[in-house]
Write a structure and sequence with these properties.
The chain is an alpha/beta fold. About 45% of the residues lie in helices and about 10% in strands. The protein contains 17 helices and eleven strands. A hairpin with a 2-residue loop joins strand 9 and strand 10. Helix 5 runs antiparallel to helix 14. The longest helix has 22 residues.
Length: about 550
């Protein structure tokens, strides 16, 4: 499913990036150039400048994460454990149940969904409604459906199912959302039924996209978004199957590899000559990032420094909230022992806004690195639903830690708005690129792909589309918004390391699909697919250090 246009490459193809709401399919939607083609980071020749020896070392380090995942899969009783990827949502569900039992009004309830439910089931209620539908109304709805089917915008997703029938799935999804935003639930219900006829979790990328968005729209229409999302995220999910699916994602898509390579390169360079390195990792999860760095430190002339990792993540529901974060520490300790790297670990599993600087046990003689590249900050509530913006609170905590570097990786999404229709459109453009990406790199019958789409993308889409207020925990911002947040928190941006950027570009060009690319805008390294920026990473320091 290769595309001839839309690549970030260099001066030959022309560097073109899109805003979140612009199509990845048509050149007329190109809106800006982020960087001059002559900039060294964006040159087309840098990826060939590195030696074969460096490339071999890169490949060996890249496989360290996959081998580490394989070792986790070999652990006993793995199937009895829940997956860490959705702990934040499971915790929210557990808290709401707890407060319901106590009859306590806390935590504060979000405002009710803007679309009150009219139907509990789209198909059942449609059959009941058609018996008493006014002929003029039915004719109007049929006309709307016909117009939706016949639209053929260049930027749309077109699917031909029967001879002579062309359905623009993205246009139908947008029309359904527009009908819901206008409280025209009958029209929304009819359009949703039409979408169901042409979508499938087993089809191509656009059909899968439409399937999961239709799930979200139906839940929103029925007013059951929170219940369905909670059920999806609290059901027992096999850790082994999820890690296998993540292995597939890592092998097919470079985004994790790009962020890890850049972050670890920056840390390795910063730690040169240091006797003690303290990494404070917000969103440690299973610690997939660190095997590569541990190997790099073990090869350092003169021996490795003492490595301290403070692993921070959201608590798991139940009586042992820090259990899985502690398990990550034990795995990393065993890995460090294998490579003779002195190691110390501390697990913190609590709400990030409740963490105190004293919890970090910071030693001023250490090189201190704050790392957050697993996109977990997007789950923090912001000023649209709470008086205390938790994103800003965590950034201020990081500034007060006075780290030598703060490495910040983000999911570049413009669908964190309380306005449903705007949020829907932006989410549709974003996930359109993600499903297209997997369709181009992984076979449609691959079970790991289907599980990743269902457990990761599907759950996120359900939360974004069907939940409101504090129940909506998927709250990504674009990198330019994070730029403003970080600066307001008292952080200043540090320039990118040119050599490491070139290394990342080389890995992507050599090992991954041609439509993946790396570009630079200011102090951000951008990761994209067919011209759309999906992730970004940058480095920061407390501004007061250089006053």
């Amino acid at each position: 499913m290769d595309s001839a246009g839309g690549k970030f490459s260099g001066p030959k193809s022309g560097l073109k990036l899109y805003h979140e709401s612009d199509s990845i399919y048509s050149d007329h939607n190109v809106v800006e150039r982020f960087m001059d083609d002559s900039h060294p980071y964006n040159s087309a020749t840098d990826s060939g400048a590195r030696s074969e020896e460096d490339s071999a070392e890169d490949s060996q380090l890249s496989t360290a994460m996959l081998k580490y995942m394989g070792e986790i899969l070999m652990e006993d009783e793995l199937e009895d454990r829940n997956c860490m990827f959705q702990d934040r949502v499971a915790l929210l569900a557990a808290e709401k149940s707890f407060y319901d039992v106590l009859g306590d009004p806390s935590p504060p309830s979000p405002p009710p969904p803007p679309n009150p439910p009219l139907y509990s089931n789209a198909a059942t209620n449609d059959r009941k409604r058609r018996k008493n539908q006014h002929p003029d109304e039915a004719s109007k709805i049929q006309k709307e459906q016909s117009e939706a089917c016949n639209q053929s915008k260049t930027s749309g997703i077109k699917k031909k199912r029967n001879k002579g029938e062309v359905v623009d799935l993205r246009a139908l999804l947008t029309q359904c959302a527009q009908a819901m935003a206008a409280y025209n639930h009958r029209a929304a219900n009819d359009i949703l039924m039409l979408i169901r006829l042409h979508s499938s979790p087993f089809g191509d990328g656009s059909q899968r996209l439409a399937h999961f968005f239709a799930n979200g729209l139906e839940a929103r229409l029925a007013g059951t978004g929170l219940q369905i999302h909670t059920a999806l995220t609290t059901k027992k999910t096999s850790v082994g199957d999820m890690i296998k699916a993540y292995q597939l994602y890592f092998s097919a898509c470079p985004f994790t590899n790009m962020s890890n390579t850049y972050a670890n390169g920056v840390i390795e360079k910063l730690a040169e000559g240091a006797t003690s390195l303290h990494i404070i990792d917000f969103g440690v999860l299973y610690g997939f990032q660190w095997p590569c760095l541990i190997q790099l430190l073990s090869l350092r002339p003169g021996g490795p420094p003492k490595l301290r990792i403070t692993g921070i993540d959201f608590p798991q529901p139940g009586f042992w909230p820090a259990e899985r974060v502690e398990e990550t520490g034990r795995r990393l300790a065993n890995y460090c022992k294998r490579f003779d790297v002195p190691f110390q670990y501390k697990a913190i599993a609590q709400r990030w806004d409740t963490i105190e600087i004293e919890d970090m046990e910071i030693d001023k003689n250490e090189v201190i690195v704050v790392n957050s590249i697993n996109n977990r900050m997007e789950n923090l509530l912001d000023e649209t639903v709470t008086d205390k913006c938790l994103k800003d609170a965590v950034l201020e905590l990081i500034r007060r830690m006075n780290p030598d570097i703060f490495i910040h990786g983000i999911l570049n999404g413009n669908f964190n708005t309380p306005f449903f229709l705007t949020r829907f459109r932006e989410a549709l453009f974003h996930f359109d690129a993600l499903f297209d990406m997997l369709d181009a790199t992984v076979g449609r019958e691959n079970e790991g792909r289907m599980m990743f789409e269902r457990e990761m993308y599907g759950k996120d889409i359900m939360n974004i589309i069907a939940c409101e207020g504090s129940e909506r925990i998927e709250r990504p911002d674009i990198y330019k918004q994070w730029q403003g947040r970080n600066e307001r928190a008292g952080l200043r941006q540090v320039g990118l390391e040119e050599e490491i950027v070139m290394k990342v570009r080389s890995i992507v060009k050599k090992d991954y699909h041609k439509d993946f690319a790396v570009e630079v805008d200011g102090g951000w390294m951008l990761h994209g697919w067919k011209g759309r920026v999906l992730y970004a990473i940058s480095c920061w320091k407390p501004s007061h250090l250089h006053l």
